[in-house]
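Hello,

Our lab assistant flagged a job as stuck in the queue for most of the afternoon. It eventually completed. Since we weren't sure the result was trustworthy after the delay, we are filing this so someone can double-check. Below is the sequence as submitted and the structure that was eventually returned. Let us know if re-running is recommended.
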Amino acid sequence: MTENGQVAPWDDIYRGVAEGFSGPVPWNIGEPQPEIARLIAEDRFRSDVLDAGCGHAETSLHLAAQGYTVVGLDLSPTAIAAARAAATERRLTTASFEVADICSFTGFDGRFATIVDSTLFHSLPVDGRGNYLSSVARAAAPGASYFVLAFAKGAFPEGQGPNPVTDDELREAVAEYWTVDDLRPAFVHALLGERDAAMWQRDEKGRSMLPAWLLSAHRG
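-- returned structure --
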């Protein structure tokens, strides 16, 4: 989905017209990723929350339903339109969404007590990670929490898929801007076709479970 220095055509992907994407995106499972939902249930989130690369924004919508104030940012106008429509339909007034480049957005300096990256990090060009981390760190309030769920190296055959990471790669990149508290193996749950799904174990809802890392950090 991305080359080292090239941004994927995200709006085409969300519209279902990009090569290899003829229907709904597989990471939109209709609810937050279970790893992220578990953190929310453990009261690890505080308002205001930035949902970085929010996509259809199920994480934002879930948080807003619990009373959190959330801002979702995404490069895709199609994804943001879907998120806004869902928030209106569910009467969630504490969630707002904007089209923005997560690697260079401005206007939120020092605002967010929690920043969540649910399957964004591995979607960035490798040489764009520093700009992204700098941007979200600038938007963080003192003491803010930062959570990242990203595909692990080996989740896809070499040369296919996005830019997955080793645990050391993820830790070293984030540690330049944040204090890393925890990094552990995790899963990204996805709705894959039968052929692709056969490669992975499945959860109780039949969704494929792809290897990932879950990182927790804080801003000093």
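-- support follow-up --
The delay was a queue issue, not a problem with the job. The result is valid. Confidence is low (pLDDT under 50) at residues 1-5. The chain has one domain: 10-218.
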